[in-house]
C-alpha cells in the first residue's frame, strides 16, 4: 500500500509539473498572438478610413491616399490564381484517391505534392520569375515582364498542393460501400467519382479551396518576383500590378508616416479577410458533419 501511495504521489507530481509547463507554453504563445492581433487592430483601426477603398496608393510625400489599386490587384490576382489552381488540385486529388490510390505513381505524386505543400513561397516566386517573367521579357523584347498573370501563376502553384491534399483526403473518407453499390449498378467509374463521391465530399473540398485562398491572400514573396507592384490603377494582367501584401511590405519600411498608416490599414484588412475565410471553412466542416 505504501508503494502504491508513493507511486501515486510521484505520478501526481509529474503530472502537475507537466501541466504547469504546458499551461505556461500555451499562455506564452497566446500572449504573443494577442499582442500581434491587438497591435494590428489598434493601429489598423486608427488608419482605416473610406479613402482606403477609393483612392490609389500615394506618391512619396503626398498627404492623402488609399489602397484602392492594391485591393483591386489583390482580388484579381487571387481570384485568377484560385481559378487556375483549384481545378487542377481537385482533379489531381480525384485521380490520387480513385485511380492511383495504391499505385507507385500515386505514391510518387503524393510525395511531390507534399514537397510543394511545404516549399517556401519565395522558391515558387523565383521559379515563376525564371520560367515566366524572364522568358516573356525575352520573347517580347522587354514589353512584357513583371505582370499580374505571372503573380496569378505563382499563387496557383501554392493553391494546387493544398487543394490536392484536401480533395484526396476527403475522397478517401467516403465509405467503400458507396463506391461498391454504385459500381454494382453498372455506373461508370468516372460518373461514380464526379457525380456521387465528389458531391458527397464537396463540403470538404470547398473548405480546402477556402484554406488555400486564406494562405495565398497574404503571400508577399511570390508577388515581389512576379507582379512586382504598380502605383497606378491597372487592370492589364500583362503589366505590373499592385497588391496589398507587396504594398504593406513597401510602405512599412518607408520613412513616411502616412505610408506606414496605410500599411497598418492593409494589414488589418488582410487579417479580417483571413479570419473570415477560416470561419467560413469551419462552417462548411460543421455543415458536412451535421449531414
Strand content: under 5%
Secondary-structure arrangement, i.e. CATH architecture of the largest domain: Orthogonal Bundle
User: Given the helix and strand composition, which structural class is it?
Assistant: mainly alpha
Largest sheet: none
Secondary structure: number of strands: 0
Instruction: Please identify the top-level CATH class of the largest domain.
Output: Mainly Alpha
Q: So what's the overall shape?
A: globular
CATH superfamily of the largest domain: MetI-like
Please bin the fraction of helical residues: over 70%
Radius of gyration: 24 Å
Order of helices and strands: HHHHHHHHHHHH
What separation lies between the terminal Cα atoms?
52 Å
How is the CATH topology of the largest domain named? MetI-like fold
Number of domains: 2
The overall average pLDDT, rounded, is: 89
Unreliable stretches: none
Amino acid at each position: 500500500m505504501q508503494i502504491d501511495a508513493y507511486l501515486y504521489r510521484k505520478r501526481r507530481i509529474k503530472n502537475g509539473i507537466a501541466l504547469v509547463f504546458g499551461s505556461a507554453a500555451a499562455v506564452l504563445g497566446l500572449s504573443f498572438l494577442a499582442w500581434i492581433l491587438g497591435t494590428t487592430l489598434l493601429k489598423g483601426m486608427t488608419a482605416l478610413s473610406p479613402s482606403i477603398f477609393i483612392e490609389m496608393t500615394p506618391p512619396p510625400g503626398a498627404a492623402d491616399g488609399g489602397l484602392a489599386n492594391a485591393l483591386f490587384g489583390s482580388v484579381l490576382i487571387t481570384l485568377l490564381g484560385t481559378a487556375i489552381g483549384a481545378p487542377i488540385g481537385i482533379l489531381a486529388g480525384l485521380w490520387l484517391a480513385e485511380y492511383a490510390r495504391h499505385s507507385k505513381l500515386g505514391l510518387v505524386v503524393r510525395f511531390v505534392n507534399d514537397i510543394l505543400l511545404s516549399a517556401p513561397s519565395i522558391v515558387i516566386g523565383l521559379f515563376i520569375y525564371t520560367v515566366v517573367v524572364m522568358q516573356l521579357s525575352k520573347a517580347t523584347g522587354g514589353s512584357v515582364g513583371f505582370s499580374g498573370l505571372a503573380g496569378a501563376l505563382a499563387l496557383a502553384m501554392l493553391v494546387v498542393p493544398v487543394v490536392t491534399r484536401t480533395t484526396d483526403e476527403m475522397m478517401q473518407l467516403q465509405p467503400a460501400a458507396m463506391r461498391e453499390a454504385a459500381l454494382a449498378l453498372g455506373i461508370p467509374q468516372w460518373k461514380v467519382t464526379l457525380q456521387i463521391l465528389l458531391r458527397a465530399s464537396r463540403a470538404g473540398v470547398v473548405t480546402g479551396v477556402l484554406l488555400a485562398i486564406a494562405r495565398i491572400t497574404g503571400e508577399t514573396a511570390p508577388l515581389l518576383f512576379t507582379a512586382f507592384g504598380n502605383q497606378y490603377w491597372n487592370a492589364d494582367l500583362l503589366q505590373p500590378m499592385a497588391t496589398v501584401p507587396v504594398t504593406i511590405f513597401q510602405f512599412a519600411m518607408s520613412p513616411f508616416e502616412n505610408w506606414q498608416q496605410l500599411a497598418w490599414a492593409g494589414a488589418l484588412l488582410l487579417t479580417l479577410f483571413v479570419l473570415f475565410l477560416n470561419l467560413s471553412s469551419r462552417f462548411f466542416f460543421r455543415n458536412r458533419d451535421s449531414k
